[in-house]
Design a protein that fits this description.
The complex is a heterodimer of chains A (156) and B (94).
Chain A: E1 2-5, H1 6-19, E2 25-31, E3 39-43, E4 53-54, H2 57-69, E5 72-81, H3 90-95, E6 102-107, E7 124-131, E8 134-138, E9 140-143
Chain B: E1 3-6, E2 20-23, H1 28-38, H2 42-46, E3 47-50, E4 53-56, E5 60-64, E6 67-68, E7 84-89, E8 92-93
Parallel strand pairs in B: 1-7
Antiparallel strand pairs in B: 1-2, 3-4, 5-6, 5-7
Chain lengths: 156, 94
């Protein structure tokens, strides 16, 4: 199950709408092992494509160094599909390399007008685990705010 | 000569869970061979055969002191004592 706060959910959807018809991508980082998506980090799709996404290699390094310095991990890795459903493609499954992450797929296929402009059509938002090539869909629970983090364990 | 090598989550099965390991080599290619000696199987996850030679896999990024090795010679990139090598799988899909 993915538990995500409304503001982060809205930010992911807004990013996907904004970049349509190209795929949008990014992560939501959180403290290692916490399963809490706390810090929204939209990324540039270096592929600039309606059918492919890839983080720029230099920005990827900065992102991971930054998360490392904060003891964070990518809790959510998200990207959009702009003409197909919000389900991992074969490429998505083959390249998934964060076994601990929730892979969020957003589909904006119903968000454009016949002339190609964006509109306020519905967006599909789904979450999956992708481990060793196996896809498992999970429930998405959107909350007003994440519950308070459990306090750090103190030594007895 | 000691090179500090940062291992991504997906490859930590080869390093008993270690986030960083020490390696040795004057080039990236030599370093990868050295790593494979201590962590068998890891080389195959980093490189692939192409046109009779070896190449870094398309969706694996390797950085030497924050420089993407694709811009500094790829597998032939030179290494020195104390360098830091970071391995990161691409975040990509379709």
């Amino acid at each position: 199950m993915l538990t995500i706060d409304q503001a982060t959910y809205d930010a992911i959807v807004a990013h996907a709408r904004r970049d349509h018809p190209d795929e949008a991508c990014g992560v939501v980082a959180g403290p290692e092992g916490s399963d809490r998506p706390e810090r929204f980090v939209p990324m540039v799709n270096a592929a600039g494509s309606p059918t492919f996404y890839e983080f720029d290699s230099t920005e990827l390094l900065h992102l991971y160094k930054d998360m490392d310095a904060r003891d964070e991990e990518p809790v959510v890795v998200y990207h959009s599909h702009t003409a197909t459903e919000a389900y991992p493609s074969r490429t998505d499954i083959g390249l998934a390399s964060e076994p601990n992450a929730h892979y969020v797929l957003v589909s904006t296929r119903d968000c454009f007008t016949s002339s190609g402009g964006n509109n306020e059509g519905p967006v599909e938002f789904r979450s999956f685990r992708i481990i060793d090539g196996e896809v498992t869909e999970e429930e998405v629970v959107v909350v007003e705010q994440l519950p308070p983090a459990s306090p750090p364990r103190s030594d007895p | 000569m000691a090179i500090d090598v940062r291992i991504p989550t997906i490859l930590r099965t080869y390093t008993d869970g270690a986030k960083a390991v020490a390696g040795d080599g004057a080039t990236l290619s030599a370093l990868i061979d050295d790593l494979d000696g201590n962590h068998p199987g890891i080389k195959d996850r980093l490189v692939e055969s192409k046109d009779g030679g070896l190449e870094l896999r398309r969706f694996v990024n390797v950085y030497v002191n924050d420089e993407d090795v694709r811009f500094i010679g790829g597998l032939d990139a030179q290494l020195s004592d104390g360098d830091q090598v970071v391995v990161l799988p691409a975040v990509a899909g379709g």
